[in-house]
Design goal:
Radius of gyration: 28 Å
CATH architecture of the largest domain: 3-Layer(aba) Sandwich
InterPro entries: AAA+_ATPase, ABC_transporter-like_ATP-bd, ABC_transporter-like_CS, ABC_transporter_ATP-bind, P-loop_NTPase
Strand content: 5-15%
Pfam families: ABC_tran (PF00005)
GO molecular function: ATP binding; ATP hydrolysis activity
Oligomer: single chain
Keywords: ATP-binding, Nucleotide-binding, Transport
Order of helices and strands: EEEHEEEHHHHEHEHEEHHHHHHHHHHHH
Number of helices: 19
Bound molecules: adenosine-5'-triphosphate
Protein name: ATP-binding cassette domain-containing protein
Distance between the termini: 75 Å
Length: about 425
């Protein structure tokens, strides 16, 4: 088979103060018609590798060749399918419109576009949904649209970055089989990144196992399962079971500390310091101030990410992930974003409702009698309806929930005393209930 993809000495170091090297000196080939799976620990650089191959990121070192041609910009005969179909489809376009969209840029006439879209949608079982909008489809159907859009371009190489990670297990099996069928029918060359060891064995002709960050290849395993695969019998076969064990062992191998890069394993969602500065707070949370084992201010700030180590100190000071948080994280992971996204942009993505309510919560004053209530609480003398002080390090979401509960309790307390009849009736009912029990 001729070589479709030739990656030589590929490396990528992200720009910025820390200059994180995500991929280092990586070399491998993918032959035409082959389906190669890439597995590796979380954060090792799999997505960075795919983006560098597609030239969505400029490689820092090395080169990529697609059927012999040096890749210097995003190649026309290459398509990428990302995990998050919700973000990759245009919600204002019909299914057919989404599939036809990239064909316009490739200069196909209206009739050709229509024919190609109809044919590709039929091949992924969506011919009946051509005039629907993405938001009218299930998650699995939306991912089919994303796959159809990529296939409609008849790419020489299809790159897939955890394409089935966002769907349920049953849909995942269906989409895996769809990929195998389409690949057989169209002889597409596929390079697929997955977290799922079983998926890599089920789909791949070959598996590349990557090391922790910066990614390098630790093993290359041929998958001797033939082209015809079945979700039940293949997964039960001896070869399958042996291979999945082999991949799992390779992924588990601890890296000796001496070999581990200094910046390896840095959590991707760890928030930079500007994240908290952007919220107008550089203060040490009170709980951390009071604790003798609390880390210094900078550590507390850094540990506020959702991926921060789960220690009791972090628990008491870290804010839970809000939609705004995840929007920030997601935005920072954008394929074209090496630089942090501004908070305004992240708020926009989080939606006006979210950011408005977050702002409102931030502007709410603390209870005036906070210290008195805190003292009462310590004494055990706080009544159930007394306004409670905000616990140190309490998140905005938790505060909103607590305040709603307080309001409800206050409303209950203001209700008129129940009449003697009502009390008797109540008592009778509860006695009846107790008796039945
Ligand atoms: N835009 C960026 N700027 C700086 N560092 C980044 C950026 N994107 C990713 N990284 C870092 O590069 C490393 C590799 O990230 P990448 O997303 O490629 O890993 P991955 O193997 O795909 O992760 P996962 O399996 O969790 O999806 C991580 O340490 C990550 O924090």
């Amino acid at each position: 088979m001729p070589t479709m993809l030739d990656v030589t000495g590929l490396g990528h170091t992200y720009a910025g103060a820390n200059g994180h090297t995500a991929v280092s000196d990586l070399s491998f080939r993918v032959e035409a018609g082959e389906l190669t799976c890439i597995v590796g620990p979380s954060g090792c650089g799999k997505s960075t590798l795919l983006r560098a191959i597609a030239h969505l990121l400029e490689p820092t070192t090395g080169e990529v060749r697609l059927h012999g041609d040096l890749v210097t910009s995003v190649p026309e005969d290459l398509a990428v399918v990302f995990q998050d179909y919700g973000r990759s489809l245009f919600p204002w376009m019909t299914v057919r419109g989404n599939v036809e969209f990239p064909l316009r840029a490739r200069g196909l006439s209206r009739t050709e576009r229509r024919e190609r879209a109809t044919e590709t949608l039929a091949s992924v079982g969506l011919d009946a949904s051509a005039t629907k909008y993405p938001w009218q489809l299930s998650g699995g159907m939306q991912q089919r649209v994303a796959i159809a859009r990529a296939l409609a371009c008849r790419p020489a190489l299809l790159l897939m970055d955890e394409p089935f990670a966002s769907v349920d297990a049953q849909t995942r099996f269906e989409l895996e089989d769809l990929l195998l069928r389409v690949r057989r029918e169209q002889d597409t060359t596929v390079l697929l990144v997955t977290h799922d060891i079983d998926e890599s064995v089920y789909l791949g002709d070959r598996i590349l196992v990557l090391s922790t960050s910066p990614a390098s290849i630790v093993a290359e395993l041929p998958v001797d399962l033939g082209r015809e695969r079945d979700q039940i019998s293949t997964r039960e076969s001896e070869t399958f079971v042996h291979l999945r064990g082999e991949v799992a062992r390779l992924l588990r191998q601890p890296i000796p500390a001496a070999e581990a890069p200094a910046d390896a394993g840095e959590p991707r969602t760890r928030r930079p310091r500007w994240w908290r500065w952007g919220r107008g707070s550089t203060e040490i949370p009170p709980a951390a101030e009071q604790r003798s084992d609390a880390p210094p201010a900078e550590d507390v700030t850094a540990a506020s990410g959702s991926d921060a180590p789960e220690e009791s100190t972090a628990d008491s000071t870290a804010e839970p992930e809000t939609s705004e948080d995840s929007a920030t994280t997601r935005a920072a992971e954008s394929p074209v974003a090496d630089e942090p996204i501004s908070e305004e942009a992240a708020s926009e993505e989080a939606g006006p409702e979210d950011s408005a309510s977050e702002r409102a919560a931030a502007e709410e004053p603390e209870p005036a009698d906070a210290s008195a209530t805190e003292q009462a609480s310590e004494d055990g003398s706080t009544s159930e309806t007394a306004p409670a002080v905000a616990p140190p390090g309490e998140s905005k979401r938790a505060r909103r929930r607590r305040q709603a509960q307080e309001t409800a309790r206050a409303a209950e307390a203001e209700q008129p005393e129940s009449t003697p009849e009502a009390s008797t009736e109540d008592t009778g009912k509860s006695e009846g209930t107790a008796r039945r029990a």
